[in-house]
Amino acid sequence: MRTTILDLQKMKRNRQRIPMVTAYDATGAHWVESAGIPAILVGDSLGMVVQGHETTVPVTLDEMIYHARLVVRGTKKALIIQDLPFMTYQISHEQALANAARAMQEGGVGAVKMEGGVRIAQTVAEIVSVGIPVMGHVGLTPQSVHQIGGWRLQGRDSDSAAHVLDDALAIQEAGAFAIVLEKIPAPLAKTITEKLHIPTIGIGAGPYCDGQIQVFHDLLGLFDEFVPRHTKQYATLGQAMETAFHSYIAEVENGQFPDAEHSFGMEESSPTTLYGNGKQ
Ligand code: KIV
User: Fold this and answer.
1) Long-range pairs for 93-99 at CB < 8 Å and ≥24 separation?
2) Whole-model pTM above 0.90?
3) Which of 149, 188, 197, 278 sits at a 20 to 30 Å CA gap from 212?
4) 53 secondary structure, DSSP code
5) 121 φ, ψ (degrees, to nearest 5)
6) What is the pLDDT of residues 41-82, one digit of tens each?
7) Ligand 1 centroid vs 15 CA: distance in angstroms?
8) Residue 71 and residue 40 in contact, taking contact as beta carbons nearer than 8 Å
């Protein structure tokens, strides 16, 4: 049985912190799960760290579903949550319901995540009402990066902090089971975490959230375009990969690889010369 949304809510009640990581393929998700992460997000951050876009805006629902299927296939125990990408839930409630249903049925995930607060609360309520668990996402919402004017800290002054709090309350009221708080001041995240009964999962939101989420490539040191201040690299796998490729190149070039251990022989009775003796 996979982790359920109720398990995550119980963790909040028991003051047990919730560690989350993103994943985008079966192998990555397998390692995340086998380390003991209870819930994995197939984030639309894949647009940047997998597809090489500058933002998450170009990511399509078909692409998200493709990656969600890989992650679901590579795991057995974790709750898999899939981002609904840009403009797949803003046009109408019908569009949002149909797309959330596609994520559940075609992607095989256990929940969807949507960015926004007050302005999408009614849509969230509609989706939850048909039995699809929704995770909210407020503060810095990367799908709106062009409107926000960059990857800026949100809720820095008291007016904008009040807006972020209103957004979080509206999403809880709409029936979301948990909410991501991205790039907001730690004291604001603390207030929101204390006011909400659903778990808050922070990224760049300080230490007082009920859980934390990090992007797979950031956490492992695989993405070096830029390293956000809120990212802690727990490994430098990008460098380890480059070192391994250097060794491989050198060994291919000098003939050290493949050696006998990595090559195949033939049975004793087989001819040693297959070609070139002129006989059929
Ligand atoms: O897309 C994503 O990976 C996210 C996380 C950063 C929360 O939304």
Assistant:
1) 93/122, 93/123, 93/126, 96/123, 96/126, 96/127, 97/126, 97/127, 97/130, 99/61
2) yes
3) 149
4) -
5) -60, -40
6) 999 999 999 999 999 999 999 999 999 999 999 999 999 999
7) 23
8) yes
CB-based contact 136:124 (threshold 8 Å): yes
Residue of 24, 37, 45, 50 to test ligand 1 pocket, by largest number of atoms within 8 Å of CB: 45
Judging by beta carbons within 10 Å of its beta carbon (0-12, 13-18, 19+), is residue 278 exposed, middle or buried?
exposed
SS3 call for 67 = helix
For the stretch 201-252, pLDDT in tens is 999 999 999 999 999 999 999 988 778 889 999 999 999 999 999 999 999 9
Tell me if 213 CB under 6 Å of ligand 1.
yes
Q: What are the structure tokens assigned to 156, written together?
A: 């820095």
Reduced to 3 states (helix: H, G, I; strand: E, B; else coil), residue 153 is coil
| 202 CB within 6 A, ligand 1 | no
* CA 262 to ligand 1 centroid distance, Å: 41
Best CA proximity match to 198, nearest among 111, 90, 73 = 111
Kindly list the catalytic residues: 182
**Residue whose structure tokens are 């003051």:** 15
The pLDDT tens digits of the residues spanning 125-174 come to 999 999 999 999 999 999 999 999 999 999 999 999 999 999 999 999 99
Task: Read off the amino acid at residue 168.
Answer: A
The residue whose CA is least distant from atom 3 of ligand 1 is 43
Q: Is the peptide bond before 258 cis (omega within 30 degrees of 0)?
A: yes
Alpha carbon 212 to chain centroid, angstroms:
12
Return all residues near 106 (Cβ < 8 A) that are at least 6 apart: 65, 69
3-state SS, residue 273: coil
| CA 180 to centroid of ligand 1, rounded, Å | 8
The finding on whether 25 has its CB within 6 A of some atom of ligand 1 is no
